[in-house]
Amino acid sequence: MKITIQYFEGCASWKIADARVRNVLRDLSRPDVDVEYQLIGSPDDAERVGFHGSPTILVDGRDLFANGTEPVGFTCRVYTTDEGRQGAPAESQLRDLLAGPSTEPRTSP
What is the pTM of this model? Predict the structure, then answer.
């Protein structure tokens, strides 16, 4: 499994997302998982790669938090969590997705 955190400079939430991903991987005893970072440098780059906002967390190239309504653009991303809207997914959400048997994208309720 490879995790890629897409981000742009000026968005502090990617560092929160990174810490949460690493905490969950440690809790799941997954030192085998590589975490990489992809800097999105401009609005043109965002369009070219289909960037859904900073931070976007990809697992094996797939955005597991996508539900089909996320705009593509050079913007901050907001996640809906049990604690409300945040700039990064909650550790519980990451744990559910990373510990599960499948990396299929979520569907909207």
Answer: 0.87
* pLDDT tens-digit series, residues 34-57: 999 999 999 999 999 999 999 999
**104 in a structural domain:** no
> Do 67 and 108 contact (CB within 8 A), yes or no?
yes
Can you give the CATH number for the domain in which 15 is found? 3.40.30.10
Burial track 85-95 (b if 16+ CB lie within 10 A, e otherwise): ebbbbbeebbb
